[in-house]
Design goal:
The chain is an alpha/beta fold. The protein has nine helices and nine strands. It is 39% helix and 11% strand. Strands 1-2-3-4-8 form a five-stranded parallel β-sheet, sandwiched between helices. Strand 3 (96-102), helix 4 and strand 4 form a beta-alpha-beta unit. Helix 3 runs parallel beside helix 4, helix 5 crosses helix 7 and helix 7 packs across helix 9 (269-281).
């Protein structure tokens, strides 16, 4: 059961597991999307009338830092209260529960955070994710957490918007002081599959190997697709008045367990960026 089938990651995981022969259902908040494989669920007031499942992946969340800062009570109901209710209910039915979390449970002051480092969030979203993690880990052997750094996929508006503007000869203004350690949806799906296959418990990480500025991502896009690099005009997130909590210097997480257990390594920035942009160019 994928909770949050309307999300980018949730939809991708549902397709991935179905393609590998799993019987999959993915919840939706859209009444017009409800069918036999898409049960209705709104985490603001979960009915808990959910189908049974061996594995539950909690992929639904309000993940925009600004939205959580603007409405901490409303987003808490989704990111923590509703998430905990579903996790406890499904675990009581015998399911193994996996929560998708974030590097934002840390303040971004230090690179390569460890899975046993004490959470130290600098934003409301990070605080909520840390609380959600604690509830799932409290399930013991039935609970797992997968922390993610920035997940990229070709259809994201950031990349498609840049490509559209560059293709029309318009300048783009990526930040040169806002950082990401990107991973692909494919790597996220592989990591989730390993956790699900083993019903593994505890905290796991999926992250890029290094933090680089969004400016570098824009340069790779222009180079790969053949756009004029002179159209890339760097700007500062400080000048854009972006809150400090939304612009951590570091987002990387250590992946020693994932490498030793499943052979999964944190990918290099260039490799991930080029992989995503290759697919963008084929669209």
């Amino acid at each position: 059961l994928i909770v949050g089938g309307d999300s980018m990651i949730g939809a991708a995981l549902a397709s991935h597991f179905a393609a590998h022969g799993w019987q999959v259902q993915a919840t939706t908040r859209r009444r017009d999307s409800v069918d036999a494989s898409h049960p209705y669920l709104d985490l603001r007031a979960p009915s808990l009338d959910l189908p049974g499942a061996d594995i539950v992946v909690l992929a639904a969340a309000v993940a925009r830092i600004g939205d959580c800062e603007a409405d901490p009570a409303g987003t808490l109901a989704i990111n923590v209260t509703g998430t905990h209710a579903v996790a406890r209910h499904m675990a009581a039915q015998g399911a193994h529960v996996l929560l998708l979390s974030s590097d934002k449970v840390f303040d971004g002051a230090t690179p390569m955070r460890g899975r046993h480092d004490e959470p130290c969030p600098a934003c409301v979203y990070g605080q909520q994710k840390a609380a959600a993690e604690a509830g799932v880990i409290a399930l013991g052997d039935q609970g797992a957490v997968l922390r993610l750094s920035k997940v990229l996929e070709p259809g994201q508006e950031l990349l498609t918007g840049w490509a559209r503007d560059l293709g029309q000869g318009k300048p783009i203004t990526p930040f040169d002081d806002l950082y990401l350690a990107p991973v692909s949806l494919e790597l996220v799906a592989r990591t989730v599959t390993h956790i699900a296959d083993e019903c593994a418990a505890g905290i796991f990480h999926c992250t890029g190997a290094e933090d680089r500025p969004y400016m570098d991502l824009a340069r790779i896009l222009a180079e790969k697709i053949g756009y004029d690099p002179a159209l890339i005009q760097a700007t500062s997130c400080h000048a854009a008045n972006m809150p400090a909590a939304a612009r951590p210097r570091h987002t990387t997480l250590e992946m020693t367990v994932e490498q030793a257990r499943w052979g999964l390594c944190a990918p290099e920035f260039e490799a991930t960026a080029r992989e995503i942009i290759d697919h963008l160019g084929n669209r």
